[in-house]
Amino acid sequence: MTTSALGPRAGRRCHNPLNSLHAAHYFSPDLGRELGVLGITRPRAVNLAVRAAALGPVGAGAVTATFFNYKHELVARHVPAVWSIAGPADVLAARLRAVDATLRRLLGEEAVASAEMAEAAQLALRAAEACGRGARPLYSAHADLPVPEEPHLAYWHAATLLREHRGDGHLAVLTSAGLDGLEAVVTHTSTGRGMTPKWVLATRGWTEDDWNAAAGRLRERGLLDAEGELTGRGVALREDVEHETDRLDLAPYEHLGAEGVARLTALASEFAAAAAAAGAFPADLVGKH
Fold this sequence. Notes:
Blueprint: H1 3-6, H2 10-23, H3 29-38, H4 43-52, H5 60-67, H6 72-78, H7 88-107, H8 109-112, H9 115-128, H10 137-143, H11 151-176, H12 181-190, H13 197-204, H14 208-220, H15 232-248, H16 251-256, H17 258-277
Helix pairs in contact: 2-11, 2-17, 3-7, 5-6, 9-11, 9-17, 10-11, 11-15, 12-14
Pfam family, one: HTH_67
InterPro entries: HTH_67 (IPR054058)
Protein name: SalK
């Protein structure tokens, strides 16, 4: 299968709804409830633990490096201390229980048990067969986990693999572009497609002073204007970043093939739209303000 057969952004268009459904559990009350049973009750500790658990009982440095856009001081406040409350294996099991409850609540039992869900799981897992482990720490760690038996959980697992595979490559591209973690977030927010500053500051540990300092560095580089909007150079840089990320993330979608990618995109979009309509995400999560 050639790149042109897929279309220039077919992989990205497929990844976006897959990533959306994966991310729904981060905002789910089911996640806080399941981690609370283990004794992990602070929201930031919950968030850090569930995504890092696949790496094992790692320290703050490994989490900051692989997450990229979290302030290290926030990470160090909870990691590795969280592993003394509950080990990674228990956290992963609790995460999967939360995902199960979340998908059943957002999509409904009929969708969870549907032939379309089973088909989506099969397609996403097939795509993930071609993901590479090299320089992909979060993907590789999640690839070591067993595939759940139930189709909706297998689909979520495969979506997670594809998300982390693209994400690992994306961080390499951002670093090559000379953007640090917060600068990358500020430029993404300025496109109108990233998290609002309110949510970045609430979840990533950064302060308004940190944000303003990052914006100042970007203005000095000619990437942001005085109003915080991307300049022409800034727009071009973000486009280059996404195109290079597409290139590094091409293998799973080439492996699946154009027809399979189109079908997976359609199914993933339906599930993601249903989850969003059911209130999976805060209304003010995405945007410039």
